[in-house]
Amino acid sequence: VHQSKLDFFCKLGYGKQDICKVLENLGQEALEDDVLKELIRMGRKPQALESQAQPSSLKLVARGSCNTSPGLKWLDEDDSDSSNHLRPIVIDGSNVAMSHGNKEVFSCWGIQLAVDWFRERGHRYIKVFVPLWRKEPPRQDSPIADQHILEHLEKQSILVYTPSRKVKGKRVVCYDDRYIVKVAYEKDGVIVSNDHYRDLQNENPEWKWFIEQRLLMYSFVSNRFMPPDDPLGRHGPTLSNFLSKKPVLPEPKWQPCPYGKKCTYGNKCKFYHPEKPHQAQLSVADELRAKIGVPLSLGKEAEKHNCLP
């Protein structure tokens, strides 16, 4: 048990000496939550965070250099979810492109605007799903604008084509919405689309809850990608908390007492009094005893004695 706990907190980045010291104080059967609270109370930080705080020497690499190992790219893509506090983003490329093209043209520029918006916020995992037949030359019944953007995003490993083929001259297209919801559900991310996916909601109850809670709708205003500040309504989380794995709760705003210094409720008053910022919540009787100088323990014993039959 000691070794398993030691390995667990070492993976989190804490030092062995600190972990052993906490386990000696709390006992070997202490819960992991209690050990973590004690480490935080001691002011210890994981070694990974301490190394990030120290200035690291930057290494300049020439553009087009092949010195970087190819495995680093895949490692960064897989581990970006755990190291980053922002949720993964899965974009419905067809929905975004048609919305930017006013439902008449498949505008690839709209996809680029959405990707750039999430990049600027710091999201590392961004995936765009588009049917494979969109790589074909544009036709009159399916016009495409700025098609070169799709190739550019594909080279960056951002855009993913869903399968499609032709059988006896007829195009067979796989359901790209299923890819979008499935990847977002497995990654515990956010779906960017104005589609409600009602057929997939009826198909899987877990997907139904996920789509209702993790669907981020948007609008294009003068070539500007604009998601709402309240994705789940006026009483729901803010956009920052919606896109974050660890939401930040707002600080409580204390309402000042309308009676001010004339308030007679004392410390029982639920409103804020600036003249007594750190006063403990005492009863009126304890307040009077404190003013007279009688110890609180004697006063409580007298009350118990008076209550006896």
UniProtKB/TrEMBL annotation:
The cofactor(s) it depends on are: Mg(2+)
Q: Which family does it belong to?
A: Belongs to the ZC3H12 family.
Taxonomically, which superkingdom?
Eukaryota
* Protein name, per record: ZC12D ribonuclease
Q: Which InterPro entries match?
A: Rege-1_UBA-like, RNase_Zc3h12_NYN, ZC3H12/N4BP1_RNase_Reg, Znf_CCCH
Q: One Pfam annotation, family name?
A: UBA_6
Write out the GO cellular component annotations: cytoplasmic ribonucleoprotein granule; nucleus
Q: Name one GO molecular function term.
A: hydrolase activity
Segments forming C3H1-type zinc fingers: 251-276
Keyword annotations: Endonuclease, Hydrolase, Magnesium, Metal-binding, Nuclease, Zinc, Zinc-finger
* Boundaries of every C3H1-type domain copy: 251-276
